From TrEMBL:
Keywords: DNA integration, DNA recombination, DNA-binding. It holds the Pfam family Arm-DNA-bind_3. It comes from Candidatus Nitrotoga fabula. One of its GO terms (biological process) is DNA integration. GO terms for molecular function: DNA binding. Belongs to the 'phage' integrase family. This is Integrase. Residues 222-440 form the Tyr recombinase domain. The keyword DNA-binding applies. The lineage of its organism: Bacteria, Pseudomonadati, Pseudomonadota, Betaproteobacteria, Nitrosomonadales. PANTHER family: PROPHAGE INTEGRASE (PTHR30629), PROPHAGE INTEGRASE INTS-RELATED (PTHR30629:SF2). The keyword Nucleotide-binding does not apply. InterPro entries: DNA_brk_join_enz (IPR011010), Integrase-like_cat_sf (IPR013762), Integrase_catalytic (IPR002104), Integrase_DNA-bd_sf (IPR038488), Integrase_DNA_bind_dom (IPR025166), Integrase_recombinase_N (IPR010998), Phage_int_M (IPR053876), Phage_Integrase (IPR050808). Gene3D superfamilies: 1.10.150.130, Integrase, DNA-binding domain, Intergrase catalytic core.
Amino acid sequence: MAKSLTVKEIESLKPETKGYRKCVDQNLNIWVAPNGKKTWSVRYTVNGKQCFGTLPKPFGNKGSGYMTLAEARTECQRIQGLARSGIDYRIQHEEELKRKAELKEKEARENSIITNLFDSWIENGVNRKDGNKSIVQSFKKHVLPTIGNIKIKELNEHHLTNLYRSIINSGKNRTAVLVSKDICQMLAWGEKRRPWRSLMAEGNPASLVQINKLLPPDYTNIRERILSSEEIWSLNQIFLTMTANYNNSKEKNGIERPLKKETQHALWISLSTTCRIGELLKSEWCHVDFTNRTWFIPKENTKGEIGNKQSITVFLSDFTLKQFKELYELTKGSKWVFPATYKSMSHICEKAISKQVGDRQIKFKNRTKKLTSRRESNSLVLGNEDWTPHDLRRTGATLMQKLGITNHIVDLCQNHSVLTGTQKHYLLHEYDDEKKDAWQRLGQELERIINLPNPLIR
């Protein structure tokens, strides 16, 4: 039997180009790697078969991550005892590692937090039309900072109630409603699936919270804001006055820049076609046919559930056609009607116009601090209530009603699905002439309003 090595002799072993094994003691070896790392190896015989097993820690005496010579000898003796009992150390060690990994995974599952559930839900359980962008932003802003680190098994209705109340107290009633719906959807998804359902053994806490009882008594989620004829006239005057003041000013530092021409055209097109602002901002110039005076909105750009979306062809009135032609002179170098400033291959953000309009009605906002790189003024205030680009869609539809256009045609102009069941498959007339007439009459009415010398003149 070879002479047993001492600690000093092991420490003196130098690495070579190739790794090598050195006998330290009976059945105990050490492997010296080219990088100098020294690993313990034990030889043993189990059921007549000679085996080698690597000990989990390398040679050394620098702490718990290392194994001294004495510890290695003790472990070697233990392994020999296992072998005499017919137990293979390597198999036992692998099973132990597997058991510890499973235990660690189980503990991790049992201690999963709301953020873990949210990440899984976003990846596998929800598919919003915007690629889940808005819901991710909403949770990161309103939900995860408050309850994201709470263990799922510890989440209760009080956590959710306090969350909703904090949002409501900040004046964001509609946001609280949307957040509550999304949380309900997420928890309902988790309640049916492993491993989340085992963590909700006491039930879904979202089912115990009634958001309606937390909202102010006068809350309604139905917005009814429309612009009056006077406000439409005033909006046009604001555009003209701000542009003239800015252009005629020699010192422009103290003069507010007028709303971008592209934005002005977007607002007039939204009002005169009753389209959704997001549908407009995603448009490409190939969708606009100046010869046939049409604007095609493909179904992928429209609002609706997957499978139920429908495209629409908008017939351009003289008023709308003029807006598109002037807009074309501004952005014809791009495939997009409203190209992004810094992303040449994309359209502008769908919320860009709404932000520009909202930032110029700051008196109606509850902002606690000034936003960076954003205009904040009251230059677009009309009356005693704020307005949004989507209110223009409602305004245009209401004007159509006032002009005597039937509700059925107004709905079709807004691309609402007015047919149900088998009607969708058998009643295929699209009322193109009626819609064309409706849009033309709306355009004429808008032209008449904005050209009045005084808004009070009917």
